[in-house]
Amino acid sequence: MSAATEQPAQRGETVTLRIEKFADQGKGLARHDSGLVIFVPQAVPGDRVRAKVTRRQKNFAEAKLTQLLDASEKRAEPRCFYFGTCGGCDWQHVQYAEQVRMKQQSVREALLHTGGVAEDALAGGTVRPILAAERPYYYRNKMTFDFSTHRWLTPAEIETGKDFDTDFALGLHVPKSPHQVLDLRACHLPPRREPRLVNQVREFAKKKGWTPWNMRRKEGFLRHLILRDPARTDDLMLRLVTSRHAPERVAALADFLKDEVPAVTTFVHTFNDTPHPQAARGGAHRTVFGDGIVREDLGGLTFEIGPETFFQPNTRQAERLFRAVRAQADLRPTDRVYDLYCGLGALSLFVAEAAGEVIGIEGRERAVRAARKNAEANGVANARFFTGAINDRLTDDFARRHRPPDVLLADPPRVGMREAVVERVATLRPERFVYVSCDPQTQARDLKRLREATGGAYRITAVQPVDLFPQTHHVESVVALRAS
Q1: What is the pLDDT of residues 229-268, one digit of tens each?
Q2: Which residue numbers in the chain have pLDDT < 70?
Q3: Catalytic residue (choose from 86, 89, 342, 438)
Q4: What DSSP designation does 114 have?
Q5: How far is CA 110 from the centre of its chain?
Q6: Is 89 a catalytic residue?
Q7: pTM for the whole thing?
Q8: Where are the beta strands (DSSP E) in 222-346?
Q9: 395 φ, ψ to 5°?
Q10: Max Cα separation, the chain?
Q11: By residue range, what is the domain housing residue 360?
Q12: 307 lies in a domain?
Protein backbone atom coordinates (compact mmCIF):
# COMPACT_ATOMS: atom_id res chain seq x y z
CA MET A 1 0.00 0.00 0.00
CA SER A 2 1.44 3.38 -0.95
CA ALA A 3 2.12 6.18 1.53
CA ALA A 4 -0.49 8.30 -0.25
CA THR A 5 -3.09 5.59 0.37
CA GLU A 6 -2.10 5.25 4.00
CA GLN A 7 -2.20 9.00 4.55
CA PRO A 8 -4.34 10.78 1.94
CA ALA A 9 -4.11 14.46 1.04
CA GLN A 10 -0.39 14.90 1.57
CA ARG A 11 1.35 18.24 1.11
CA GLY A 12 1.56 19.11 -2.59
CA GLU A 13 -1.34 16.85 -3.57
CA THR A 14 -4.31 18.36 -5.45
CA VAL A 15 -7.76 17.24 -4.30
CA THR A 16 -11.37 17.82 -5.35
CA LEU A 17 -13.60 18.98 -2.51
CA ARG A 18 -17.14 20.11 -1.73
CA ILE A 19 -17.11 22.91 0.86
CA GLU A 20 -19.53 22.16 3.70
CA LYS A 21 -19.40 25.24 5.91
CA PHE A 22 -17.26 28.05 7.26
CA ALA A 23 -14.84 27.18 10.03
CA ASP A 24 -12.93 29.33 12.50
CA GLN A 25 -11.14 32.33 10.91
CA GLY A 26 -13.50 32.26 7.95
CA LYS A 27 -11.94 29.36 6.08
CA GLY A 28 -14.05 26.93 4.09
CA LEU A 29 -14.28 23.47 5.62
CA ALA A 30 -14.46 20.30 3.51
CA ARG A 31 -14.07 16.59 4.20
CA HIS A 32 -11.84 14.46 2.04
CA ASP A 33 -13.15 11.06 0.89
CA SER A 34 -11.02 9.60 3.68
CA GLY A 35 -12.86 11.72 6.27
CA LEU A 36 -9.94 14.12 6.79
CA VAL A 37 -11.00 17.71 7.45
CA ILE A 38 -9.41 20.19 5.03
CA PHE A 39 -9.56 23.97 5.45
CA VAL A 40 -9.60 26.05 2.25
CA PRO A 41 -9.32 29.86 2.48
CA GLN A 42 -11.51 31.86 0.05
CA ALA A 43 -13.83 28.90 -0.47
CA VAL A 44 -17.55 29.26 0.22
CA PRO A 45 -20.03 26.67 1.50
CA GLY A 46 -21.55 24.99 -1.54
CA ASP A 47 -18.46 25.43 -3.74
CA ARG A 48 -16.91 22.46 -5.49
CA VAL A 49 -13.22 23.19 -5.85
CA ARG A 50 -9.81 21.87 -6.75
CA ALA A 51 -7.31 22.70 -4.02
CA LYS A 52 -3.62 22.04 -3.45
CA VAL A 53 -2.66 20.82 0.02
CA THR A 54 -0.20 23.24 1.63
CA ARG A 55 -0.05 21.80 5.15
CA ARG A 56 -0.74 18.35 6.53
CA GLN A 57 -1.30 17.63 10.20
CA LYS A 58 -2.44 14.44 11.89
CA ASN A 59 -6.13 15.38 12.10
CA PHE A 60 -6.54 18.05 9.44
CA ALA A 61 -4.99 19.68 6.40
CA GLU A 62 -4.93 23.12 4.80
CA ALA A 63 -5.16 23.71 1.07
CA LYS A 64 -5.04 26.56 -1.43
CA LEU A 65 -7.93 26.94 -3.85
CA THR A 66 -6.62 26.45 -7.39
CA GLN A 67 -9.81 26.03 -9.41
CA LEU A 68 -13.48 26.79 -8.81
CA LEU A 69 -15.38 23.93 -10.45
CA ASP A 70 -18.91 24.83 -9.31
CA ALA A 71 -19.65 28.16 -7.65
CA SER A 72 -21.91 28.36 -4.61
CA GLU A 73 -24.99 30.56 -4.82
CA LYS A 74 -23.65 32.22 -1.68
CA ARG A 75 -20.76 33.74 -3.60
CA ALA A 76 -20.49 37.44 -4.45
CA GLU A 77 -18.32 39.35 -6.88
CA PRO A 78 -15.53 41.03 -4.86
CA ARG A 79 -15.58 44.78 -5.18
CA CYS A 80 -11.86 45.28 -4.64
CA PHE A 81 -9.14 44.75 -7.24
CA TYR A 82 -6.78 43.54 -4.51
CA PHE A 83 -9.12 41.01 -2.93
CA GLY A 84 -7.59 37.58 -2.52
CA THR A 85 -4.10 38.98 -2.10
CA CYS A 86 -4.63 41.76 0.44
CA GLY A 87 -4.94 41.02 4.15
CA GLY A 88 -7.55 43.72 4.78
CA CYS A 89 -10.64 41.68 3.81
CA ASP A 90 -11.22 37.96 3.60
CA TRP A 91 -14.97 37.72 2.88
CA GLN A 92 -15.71 40.07 -0.01
CA HIS A 93 -16.45 36.98 -2.10
CA VAL A 94 -19.36 36.08 0.21
CA GLN A 95 -22.82 37.63 -0.06
CA TYR A 96 -23.36 39.95 2.88
CA ALA A 97 -26.52 38.18 4.05
CA GLU A 98 -24.50 34.97 4.24
CA GLN A 99 -21.64 36.71 6.04
CA VAL A 100 -23.87 37.78 8.92
CA ARG A 101 -25.66 34.42 9.03
CA MET A 102 -22.35 32.61 9.42
CA LYS A 103 -21.14 35.09 12.04
CA GLN A 104 -24.22 34.48 14.14
CA GLN A 105 -23.65 30.76 13.80
CA SER A 106 -19.98 31.10 14.80
CA VAL A 107 -20.95 32.85 18.05
CA ARG A 108 -23.46 30.14 18.88
CA GLU A 109 -21.08 27.28 18.03
CA ALA A 110 -18.28 28.81 20.11
CA LEU A 111 -20.53 28.85 23.17
CA LEU A 112 -21.66 25.27 22.55
CA HIS A 113 -18.35 23.64 21.65
CA THR A 114 -15.67 25.78 23.32
CA GLY A 115 -17.79 27.08 26.16
CA GLY A 116 -19.56 23.83 26.90
CA VAL A 117 -22.91 25.60 27.11
CA ALA A 118 -25.92 23.27 26.91
CA GLU A 119 -28.20 23.54 23.87
CA ASP A 120 -31.24 24.38 25.97
CA ALA A 121 -29.39 27.31 27.56
CA LEU A 122 -29.35 28.99 24.12
CA ALA A 123 -32.93 28.11 23.21
CA GLY A 124 -36.03 30.27 23.20
CA GLY A 125 -34.55 33.33 21.54
CA THR A 126 -31.57 33.63 23.87
CA VAL A 127 -29.35 34.13 20.82
CA ARG A 128 -30.68 37.33 19.27
CA PRO A 129 -30.59 38.03 15.52
CA ILE A 130 -27.26 39.59 14.60
CA LEU A 131 -27.14 43.37 14.20
CA ALA A 132 -26.00 43.61 10.58
CA ALA A 133 -24.25 46.72 9.31
CA GLU A 134 -26.26 49.21 7.29
CA ARG A 135 -23.01 50.12 5.52
CA PRO A 136 -20.99 47.00 4.66
CA TYR A 137 -18.33 49.15 2.98
CA TYR A 138 -16.57 52.46 3.78
CA TYR A 139 -17.11 52.08 7.51
CA ARG A 140 -13.69 52.13 9.20
CA ASN A 141 -12.78 55.29 11.09
CA LYS A 142 -9.16 54.21 11.44
CA MET A 143 -6.77 52.66 8.94
CA THR A 144 -3.08 51.81 9.29
CA PHE A 145 -1.09 51.61 6.05
CA ASP A 146 2.45 50.22 5.94
CA PHE A 147 5.49 51.41 3.98
CA SER A 148 7.80 48.71 2.63
CA THR A 149 10.70 48.13 0.27
CA HIS A 150 9.12 44.78 -0.63
CA ARG A 151 6.13 45.44 -2.86
CA TRP A 152 3.98 42.40 -3.52
CA LEU A 153 2.30 42.17 -6.91
CA THR A 154 -1.17 40.75 -7.43
CA PRO A 155 -1.65 38.01 -10.05
CA ALA A 156 -3.50 40.56 -12.21
CA GLU A 157 -0.56 42.98 -12.02
CA ILE A 158 1.88 40.23 -12.98
CA GLU A 159 -0.27 39.20 -15.95
CA THR A 160 -0.02 42.70 -17.44
CA GLY A 161 3.68 42.10 -18.15
CA LYS A 162 4.45 45.67 -17.07
CA ASP A 163 7.50 46.70 -15.07
CA PHE A 164 6.60 47.84 -11.55
CA ASP A 165 8.67 49.67 -8.97
CA THR A 166 8.82 46.93 -6.35
CA ASP A 167 11.14 48.90 -4.04
CA PHE A 168 8.39 51.19 -2.72
CA ALA A 169 4.98 50.22 -1.44
CA LEU A 170 2.36 51.92 0.71
CA GLY A 171 -0.68 49.85 1.56
CA LEU A 172 -1.73 46.75 3.46
CA HIS A 173 0.40 43.67 3.93
CA VAL A 174 -0.11 40.23 2.50
CA PRO A 175 -1.57 37.73 5.03
CA LYS A 176 1.15 36.14 7.19
CA SER A 177 3.84 38.22 5.42
CA PRO A 178 4.22 41.55 7.27
CA HIS A 179 7.22 42.58 5.17
CA GLN A 180 5.35 42.07 1.87
CA VAL A 181 3.05 45.03 1.18
CA LEU A 182 0.56 45.69 -1.61
CA ASP A 183 0.84 49.16 -3.12
CA LEU A 184 -2.84 50.01 -2.72
CA ARG A 185 -4.40 52.62 -4.98
CA ALA A 186 -7.91 51.94 -3.70
CA CYS A 187 -9.58 50.49 -0.60
CA HIS A 188 -13.26 50.01 0.20
CA LEU A 189 -13.05 49.88 3.99
CA PRO A 190 -12.27 53.50 4.99
CA PRO A 191 -14.29 56.55 3.85
CA ARG A 192 -13.98 57.28 0.15
CA ARG A 193 -11.65 60.27 0.56
CA GLU A 194 -8.86 58.27 2.20
CA PRO A 195 -7.42 56.34 -0.79
CA ARG A 196 -6.82 59.60 -2.65
CA LEU A 197 -4.99 60.97 0.39
CA VAL A 198 -2.85 57.82 0.61
CA ASN A 199 -1.96 58.16 -3.07
CA GLN A 200 -1.01 61.82 -2.60
CA VAL A 201 1.30 61.03 0.31
CA ARG A 202 2.90 58.17 -1.64
CA GLU A 203 3.68 60.35 -4.66
CA PHE A 204 5.00 63.15 -2.45
CA ALA A 205 7.34 60.79 -0.58
CA LYS A 206 8.59 59.14 -3.77
CA LYS A 207 9.35 62.50 -5.39
CA LYS A 208 11.33 63.47 -2.30
CA GLY A 209 13.29 60.21 -2.45
CA TRP A 210 12.30 59.11 1.04
CA THR A 211 13.01 55.44 1.66
CA PRO A 212 10.37 53.05 3.03
CA TRP A 213 11.09 50.59 5.80
CA ASN A 214 13.03 47.43 5.00
CA MET A 215 11.86 44.97 7.63
CA ARG A 216 14.58 42.42 6.93
CA ARG A 217 17.41 44.90 7.24
CA LYS A 218 15.65 47.00 9.89
CA GLU A 219 16.38 50.23 8.05
CA GLY A 220 14.54 52.93 6.12
CA PHE A 221 12.75 56.16 6.99
CA LEU A 222 9.01 55.68 6.37
CA ARG A 223 7.17 53.10 8.48
CA HIS A 224 3.41 53.70 8.78
CA LEU A 225 0.71 56.09 7.64
CA ILE A 226 -2.29 56.11 9.99
CA LEU A 227 -5.55 57.89 9.25
CA ARG A 228 -8.34 58.58 11.73
CA ASP A 229 -11.47 59.70 9.94
CA PRO A 230 -14.49 59.96 12.30
CA ALA A 231 -17.91 59.14 10.87
CA ARG A 232 -19.79 62.03 12.48
CA THR A 233 -17.41 64.98 12.51
CA ASP A 234 -15.27 66.68 9.87
CA ASP A 235 -12.02 65.97 11.71
CA LEU A 236 -9.27 64.01 9.94
CA MET A 237 -5.98 63.01 11.53
CA LEU A 238 -2.93 61.99 9.54
CA ARG A 239 -0.15 60.34 11.54
CA LEU A 240 3.20 59.56 9.97
CA VAL A 241 5.45 57.07 11.77
CA THR A 242 9.14 57.24 10.88
CA SER A 243 12.29 55.60 12.15
CA ARG A 244 14.06 58.82 13.07
CA HIS A 245 13.61 62.51 13.70
CA ALA A 246 13.58 64.55 10.52
CA PRO A 247 12.15 68.04 11.24
CA GLU A 248 12.78 69.40 7.75
CA ARG A 249 11.08 66.45 6.05
CA VAL A 250 8.10 66.57 8.38
CA ALA A 251 7.77 70.33 7.84
CA ALA A 252 7.79 69.79 4.07
CA LEU A 253 5.01 67.24 4.29
CA ALA A 254 3.04 69.58 6.58
CA ASP A 255 3.26 72.38 4.01
CA PHE A 256 2.13 69.96 1.29
CA LEU A 257 -0.87 68.83 3.34
CA LYS A 258 -1.95 72.37 4.14
CA ASP A 259 -1.77 73.35 0.48
CA GLU A 260 -3.04 70.22 -1.25
CA VAL A 261 -5.11 68.33 1.35
CA PRO A 262 -6.92 70.89 3.50
CA ALA A 263 -9.30 68.17 4.76
CA VAL A 264 -6.51 67.07 7.14
CA THR A 265 -7.26 68.92 10.37
CA THR A 266 -4.32 67.63 12.40
CA PHE A 267 -0.94 66.12 11.52
CA VAL A 268 0.96 64.05 14.07
CA HIS A 269 4.52 62.79 13.64
CA THR A 270 5.61 59.70 15.56
CA PHE A 271 9.26 58.77 15.91
CA ASN A 272 9.93 55.12 16.67
CA ASP A 273 13.23 53.38 15.97
CA THR A 274 12.25 49.99 17.39
CA PRO A 275 12.84 47.08 14.99
CA HIS A 276 9.42 45.66 15.88
CA PRO A 277 7.09 45.65 12.85
CA GLN A 278 4.31 47.30 14.86
CA ALA A 279 6.16 50.58 15.30
CA ALA A 280 2.83 52.41 15.16
CA ARG A 281 2.39 51.37 18.79
CA GLY A 282 4.41 53.55 21.10
CA GLY A 283 7.07 56.03 20.16
CA ALA A 284 7.28 59.77 20.73
CA HIS A 285 4.42 61.84 19.30
CA ARG A 286 4.63 65.44 18.13
CA THR A 287 1.67 67.41 16.86
CA VAL A 288 2.88 69.24 13.75
CA PHE A 289 -0.33 71.17 13.18
CA GLY A 290 -3.86 71.04 14.55
CA ASP A 291 -4.61 69.97 18.11
CA GLY A 292 -3.43 66.36 17.86
CA ILE A 293 -6.87 64.82 18.32
CA VAL A 294 -10.05 64.07 16.41
CA ARG A 295 -13.54 64.16 17.84
CA GLU A 296 -16.26 61.58 17.35
CA ASP A 297 -19.91 61.66 18.34
CA LEU A 298 -21.50 58.49 19.72
CA GLY A 299 -24.81 58.20 21.53
CA GLY A 300 -25.09 61.92 22.17
CA LEU A 301 -21.58 62.05 23.64
CA THR A 302 -18.45 63.55 22.10
CA PHE A 303 -15.13 61.77 22.50
CA GLU A 304 -11.63 63.13 21.97
CA ILE A 305 -9.42 60.52 20.29
CA GLY A 306 -5.64 60.83 20.37
CA PRO A 307 -2.98 59.22 18.18
CA GLU A 308 -2.96 55.90 20.04
CA THR A 309 -6.36 55.94 21.69
CA PHE A 310 -8.42 52.82 21.08
CA PHE A 311 -11.86 53.55 19.70
CA GLN A 312 -14.17 51.07 18.01
CA PRO A 313 -13.33 51.26 14.27
CA ASN A 314 -16.98 51.25 13.14
CA THR A 315 -18.75 54.17 14.81
CA ARG A 316 -22.30 53.39 13.69
CA GLN A 317 -22.13 49.74 14.69
CA ALA A 318 -20.31 50.61 17.93
CA GLU A 319 -23.31 52.69 18.97
CA ARG A 320 -25.63 49.74 18.32
CA LEU A 321 -23.23 47.51 20.26
CA PHE A 322 -23.27 49.89 23.24
CA ARG A 323 -27.06 50.07 23.17
CA ALA A 324 -27.18 46.28 23.28
CA VAL A 325 -24.82 46.21 26.28
CA ARG A 326 -26.88 48.82 28.12
CA ALA A 327 -30.12 46.94 27.43
CA GLN A 328 -28.74 43.53 28.40
CA ALA A 329 -27.25 44.91 31.61
CA ASP A 330 -30.81 45.82 32.68
CA LEU A 331 -29.46 48.89 34.48
CA ARG A 332 -31.23 50.58 37.36
CA PRO A 333 -30.65 54.07 38.82
CA THR A 334 -29.16 52.55 41.96
CA ASP A 335 -26.70 50.18 40.22
CA ARG A 336 -22.97 50.37 40.74
CA VAL A 337 -21.24 49.32 37.51
CA TYR A 338 -17.63 48.21 37.08
CA ASP A 339 -16.37 48.56 33.50
CA LEU A 340 -13.21 46.48 32.97
CA TYR A 341 -10.80 47.34 30.12
CA CYS A 342 -12.66 50.64 29.80
CA GLY A 343 -10.19 52.40 27.46
CA LEU A 344 -11.09 56.05 26.95
CA GLY A 345 -14.40 55.47 28.74
CA ALA A 346 -16.74 55.29 25.75
CA LEU A 347 -18.87 52.43 27.09
CA SER A 348 -18.62 53.68 30.68
CA LEU A 349 -20.00 57.08 29.77
CA PHE A 350 -22.62 55.59 27.47
CA VAL A 351 -24.16 53.52 30.29
CA ALA A 352 -23.65 56.09 33.06
CA GLU A 353 -26.96 57.85 32.43
CA ALA A 354 -28.88 54.67 33.30
CA ALA A 355 -26.79 53.72 36.38
CA GLY A 356 -26.06 55.13 39.81
CA GLU A 357 -22.27 55.05 39.43
CA VAL A 358 -19.76 53.67 36.95
CA ILE A 359 -16.20 52.72 37.87
CA GLY A 360 -13.87 52.15 34.93
CA ILE A 361 -10.61 50.24 35.20
CA GLU A 362 -7.95 50.35 32.50
CA GLY A 363 -4.27 49.38 32.37
CA ARG A 364 -3.07 52.27 30.21
CA GLU A 365 -2.60 55.57 32.04
CA ARG A 366 -2.95 57.59 28.84
CA ALA A 367 -6.37 56.04 28.18
CA VAL A 368 -7.52 56.73 31.74
CA ARG A 369 -6.53 60.39 31.42
CA ALA A 370 -8.57 60.53 28.22
CA ALA A 371 -11.53 58.86 29.95
CA ARG A 372 -11.50 61.41 32.76
CA LYS A 373 -11.27 64.23 30.25
CA ASN A 374 -14.14 62.82 28.20
CA ALA A 375 -16.28 62.48 31.35
CA GLU A 376 -15.66 66.10 32.28
CA ALA A 377 -16.25 67.36 28.71
CA ASN A 378 -19.58 65.52 28.51
CA GLY A 379 -20.73 66.55 31.96
CA VAL A 380 -20.85 62.98 33.29
CA ALA A 381 -20.35 63.26 37.05
CA ASN A 382 -21.11 59.67 38.10
CA ALA A 383 -18.17 57.97 36.35
CA ARG A 384 -14.73 57.49 37.91
CA PHE A 385 -11.68 55.88 36.32
CA PHE A 386 -8.70 54.01 37.77
CA THR A 387 -5.42 52.85 36.27
CA GLY A 388 -3.97 49.41 36.82
CA ALA A 389 -3.86 45.84 35.58
CA ILE A 390 -7.34 44.38 36.00
CA ASN A 391 -6.29 41.46 38.19
CA ASP A 392 -4.29 43.85 40.43
CA ARG A 393 -7.05 46.44 40.74
CA LEU A 394 -10.01 44.09 41.10
CA THR A 395 -9.27 43.12 44.69
CA ASP A 396 -11.43 42.63 47.78
CA ASP A 397 -9.94 45.82 49.20
CA PHE A 398 -10.88 47.81 46.07
CA ALA A 399 -14.42 46.42 46.22
CA ARG A 400 -14.72 47.34 49.91
CA ARG A 401 -13.54 50.89 49.33
CA HIS A 402 -15.76 51.48 46.30
CA ARG A 403 -18.51 48.98 47.15
CA PRO A 404 -18.94 45.76 45.16
CA PRO A 405 -20.53 45.98 41.70
CA ASP A 406 -24.15 45.15 40.99
CA VAL A 407 -23.22 44.95 37.31
CA LEU A 408 -19.86 44.11 35.80
CA LEU A 409 -19.00 44.90 32.17
CA ALA A 410 -15.91 43.54 30.43
CA ASP A 411 -14.59 44.25 26.94
CA PRO A 412 -11.10 42.71 26.92
CA PRO A 413 -8.64 42.46 24.02
CA ARG A 414 -8.97 39.63 21.51
CA VAL A 415 -6.95 37.28 23.73
CA GLY A 416 -9.67 37.48 26.36
CA MET A 417 -9.40 37.77 30.12
CA ARG A 418 -6.55 36.35 32.13
CA GLU A 419 -7.56 33.40 34.26
CA ALA A 420 -6.80 35.46 37.37
CA VAL A 421 -9.34 38.07 36.22
CA VAL A 422 -12.00 35.39 35.73
CA GLU A 423 -11.30 34.21 39.26
CA ARG A 424 -11.68 37.76 40.61
CA VAL A 425 -15.03 38.12 38.82
CA ALA A 426 -16.12 34.81 40.34
CA THR A 427 -15.13 36.07 43.80
CA LEU A 428 -16.98 39.37 43.42
CA ARG A 429 -20.05 37.53 42.13
CA PRO A 430 -21.93 40.54 40.64
CA GLU A 431 -25.63 40.02 40.06
CA ARG A 432 -25.27 40.79 36.35
CA PHE A 433 -22.26 40.32 34.08
CA VAL A 434 -22.06 41.45 30.44
CA TYR A 435 -19.07 40.22 28.45
CA VAL A 436 -18.24 41.94 25.15
CA SER A 437 -15.73 40.26 22.86
CA CYS A 438 -14.33 40.44 19.33
CA ASP A 439 -13.35 36.77 19.55
CA PRO A 440 -16.18 34.31 20.32
CA GLN A 441 -13.65 31.54 21.02
CA THR A 442 -11.82 33.31 23.85
CA GLN A 443 -15.12 34.65 25.15
CA ALA A 444 -16.57 31.13 25.31
CA ARG A 445 -13.40 29.85 27.03
CA ASP A 446 -13.61 32.57 29.70
CA LEU A 447 -17.29 31.96 30.32
CA LYS A 448 -16.59 28.27 30.79
CA ARG A 449 -13.92 29.15 33.35
CA LEU A 450 -16.39 31.44 35.11
CA ARG A 451 -18.99 28.68 35.23
CA GLU A 452 -16.45 26.28 36.70
CA ALA A 453 -15.16 28.84 39.22
CA THR A 454 -18.68 29.63 40.47
CA GLY A 455 -20.13 26.14 40.35
CA GLY A 456 -22.57 27.16 37.63
CA ALA A 457 -23.87 30.19 39.50
CA TYR A 458 -24.56 32.15 36.31
CA ARG A 459 -27.06 31.56 33.55
CA ILE A 460 -26.96 33.17 30.12
CA THR A 461 -29.88 35.56 29.60
CA ALA A 462 -29.01 36.91 26.15
CA VAL A 463 -26.46 36.61 23.36
CA GLN A 464 -26.26 39.48 20.87
CA PRO A 465 -23.89 39.17 17.88
CA VAL A 466 -22.98 42.48 16.22
CA ASP A 467 -21.23 42.87 12.88
CA LEU A 468 -18.61 45.58 13.36
CA PHE A 469 -16.34 44.25 10.63
CA PRO A 470 -18.17 43.57 7.34
CA GLN A 471 -16.18 41.82 4.59
CA THR A 472 -14.16 39.97 7.24
CA HIS A 473 -14.91 36.88 9.33
CA HIS A 474 -14.60 38.84 12.57
CA VAL A 475 -17.67 39.37 14.74
CA GLU A 476 -18.45 41.11 18.02
CA SER A 477 -20.41 39.17 20.62
CA VAL A 478 -22.27 40.44 23.68
CA VAL A 479 -23.20 37.80 26.25
CA ALA A 480 -25.29 38.74 29.28
CA LEU A 481 -25.33 36.57 32.41
CA ARG A 482 -27.25 36.74 35.65
CA ALA A 483 -26.50 35.06 38.94
CA SER A 484 -28.90 32.21 39.67
Answers
A1: 999 999 999 999 999 999 999 999 999 999 999 999 999 9
A2: 1-6, 277-279
A3: 438
A4: I
A5: 18
A6: no
A7: 0.92
A8: 222-228, 237-242, 266-271, 284-289, 294-298, 301-305, 336-340
A9: -105, 170
A10: 77
A11: 100-135+312-483
A12: no
